[in-house]
Amino acid sequence: MTSAHQRLGERISRFRGTRGGRRPPPPKALGSRAIVLTCSDYLALAEHPAITDAMIASLRTADGAGTAAAPGPCLSDDHPQIALGAEFARHMGARAGVLCPSGWAANTGLMQVVAGPDVPVYLDALAHMSLWEGARTAGAELAYFRHNDLGHLRRRIEVGGSGVIAVDAVYSTDGTVCPLPGLVEVAEEHDCLLVVDESHSLGTHGARGDGLVAALGLTGRVDFRTASLAKALPGRAGLIACDRPGFADYFVHTALPAVFSSTLLPHDVAGLAAALKVVREGCRRRDRLRAVTRRLRDGLDGLGYRLVESDSQIIALEAGSEADATLMRDALAARDIFSAALFPPSASVGRTLVRLSAHAGLSDDDVGRILTACRTLRPQLTERAAAPAG
After folding, report:
1. pTM of the model
2. What is the CATH number of the domain that holds 288?
């Protein structure tokens, strides 16, 4: 009989054999000409002085430098983490907000307390894996529906009955945007709870960066909004916002990621509080992000690249094969332009993408360099696609 040690060794060996070469060679050092399109710092706030100064100031205080993290259920009502959760809720037009150690903890914890064996979960096929994992942990019956296909969702609910619908506002894999107005109607028609992950729309969408739900005037009609606060808001935390009375207290005392995780550290809370203020006042950065995104999308489309249809800041190019995606990623990296090649399970089965994450820090010259590099690479990729197999 094969031992557990042997089985693990075989799995690792198969992974190396089938995925060798996928990881790009690490750059020796990012020079001043490097263009990084692999992170989610969409508003280019990671080094904003107001945020870094707030974190440094917190670390220099007795509370910030020496305070150990405490279990989540032990926080007093006036704790800074509780206060900041409430401030995020107000920013999004919600009644209550809960901060978690990460977006993953927020989603898995939320699904554990809203779903269960008697409450099915309907997940968009591209919904973030944390939503799937939370639903599995809850013991719920899972039913996926085709990406952004509301008709398929309706048919699923007609079979399974009222439950939880879980989607992303903007999908990180390919940048597509959820059809939220129609989704809200489906949820209300079938008396379902609706969970919308706003990780890639909080900060970038809405007049004050309050997210896609608010931008579409749907505040109050979405039961739960979650977010990773490590994207447009450059921190490390997760958020749940809702209007349900008593939910916050219920969550921190029953959701396993809340019960068995420590609180955020004081300097993280200070940084997020400063980041929220910058996001609220960041209209120019959002305008710049939209302008950069539009120029990149129009330019790549004009060069003949197949783009996933969307208007979000996540620009996904359909690659013909894993080899094509790897070729483009590495060729761009050789020009100090860093992109991401996505394969399953990051991308859906049978799909390969090259993803460019636009951000407000890109200059006009940066955009020109990206488009020039892609213009140069285009004939090489076309030749590969036309070459006979084998």
Report:
1. 0.91
2. 3.90.1150.10
Burial class of residue 339, CB neighbours in 10 A (0-12, 13-18, 19+):
buried
Task: List pLDDT tens digits, range 178-235.
Answer: 999 999 999 999 999 999 999 999 999 999 999 999 999 999 999 999 999 999 999 9
- Sorted by sequence, the CB contacts under 8 Å of residue 230 that are 6+ apart come out as 40, 102, 103, 236, 237
Mean pLDDT of all residues in the chain? 90
Q: Strand 340-342 to strand 353-357: parallel, antiparallel, or no bridges (unpaired)?
A: antiparallel
Tokens 């190396």 label which residue? Answer: 16
Same domain, 271 and 333: no
- Cβ atoms < 10 Å from Cβ of 143: 18
Beta-carbon neighbour count of residue 104 at 10 Å? 18
Residue for token pair 């008396």: 191
**Domain boundary pick from 245, 265, 280:** 280
Number of C-beta neighbours around residue 24 at 10 A: 16
**Three-class secondary structure assignment of 11-52:** HHHHHHHHHCCCCCCCCCCCCCCCEECCCCCCCCCCCCHHHH
C-alpha of 138 from chain center: 22
**DSSP characters for 126-188?**
TS-HHHHHHHHHTTPPEEEE-TT-HHHHHHHHHHH-S-EEEEESB-TTT--B--HHHHHHHHH
145-151: average pLDDT: 97
Helix axes 180-189, 150-160, angle to 10 degrees: 20
What span, in angstroms and rounded, lies between the C-alpha atoms of 265 and 249? 20
Whether 58 is in a domain gets the answer no
The conformation of residue 313, written as its DSSP 8-state character, comes to S
pLDDT at 73 (0 to 100): 66
For residue 363, count CB atoms less than 10 angstroms from its CB and return exposed for 0-12, middle for 13-18, buried for 19 or more.
exposed
